[in-house]
Amino acid sequence: MIIRQYIPRKPHATGIKYWALVDQFGYIYLFEIYEGSKTSSDQNNSSTLSGLAFNVVYRFNLEIPKGIKFL
Q: What is the distance between the alpha carbons of residues 18 and 25, in angstroms, rounded to a whole number?
């Protein structure tokens, strides 16, 4: 599996894209490495609503630990 991406218009054209749910103090609660686009059978029902960023926020929202409050 290749996780490095090449984006020619960026100042640093290669890198690893990741998503993280972090509180105001910098503690990481959830972390996900972007593995490329997935087929429609791999995505949940929210995939038709608004795209990649929405799907990540939706999944992270479902997994927020109980008792954790974010600003």
A: 19
Contact 28, 21 (CB under 8 A): yes
Q: 18-27 long-range contacts, Cβ below 8 Å, gap at least 24? A: 19/56, 19/60, 21/60, 21/64, 23/68, 23/70, 24/70, 24/71
Q: Which amino acid, residue 25?
A: F
Check: pTM over 0.70? Answer yes or no.
no
10-residue averages of pLDDT along the chain (71 residues): 74 84 87 72 53 87 78 62
H helix or E strand, kind and range, residue 21: strand 18-22
Please give the radius of gyration of the chain, using alpha carbons only, rounded to the nearest integer.
14
Cβ atoms of 64 and 56 within 8 Å: the answer is no
